[in-house]
Amino acid sequence: MKTGYFHVGDDPGSAILPAAGCLDVAGVGSAFRSDAVWLRVYEHKTRPDPERYAEAGVIFLTAHRRPGQRVALVGGNEQNNPFETWGGTAADYREWFRRFRAKVTSLDDSIECWWAGMSPGFPDWLDWYAGCEQADGVALHLYGLNQDELMRPARVFTATYPGVIWGGLEINHGVGRGRECDRNVWAKGVLRPSLDDMHALGAGVALYFTYDGWTQDDPSVGQATPPIAPEP
Length: 232
Hints:
By secondary structure, the protein is α/β, with parallel strands linked by helices. Helix content is about 30%, strand content about 20%.
């Protein structure tokens, strides 16, 4: 299992780890130093045309990847979350992804196409993974103040889709009031054993989501990003 950060900003001094993720609008300089990169083209809270979205991703990766670097495009973000204003149904996303993947493959079949991570905070989140077997991999978003909360979606998904390649592309304690924590304590007591669990469940990648813009009312604001151990 490869480990690393999903970067949302550039920090030249951050560790270069086996894997990284980023948006096309943030974190690119840090992420592309890793040997494996998962890229999500920012959708600007819309439902983009799948072919144009694919083209934008391929053009961006072609401009930034280096020879031999593993690269993947993620097909959007949390389409089941109304905040993302994607609209439609799980079946709509399934068809959207089919078209997205077909276009990427027609342009560059060395680029992996990963199913979007859904928000596990909505009751129907698992329904949105129907058809994910067509993808090269599946993103899970794993948030939790404790290990059980963080790992529950991974356990449900792997029980439902055994054998499907997957990874935690966003891992964090969570957002909003009531989600505050001491990140150092959380990293040691929750993140580290959760990484072991993900490895045991067959995850191919685990990325800590580095976004620090969420409002917190405790001393964890300003703490360093929790350390991620090298791949097992």
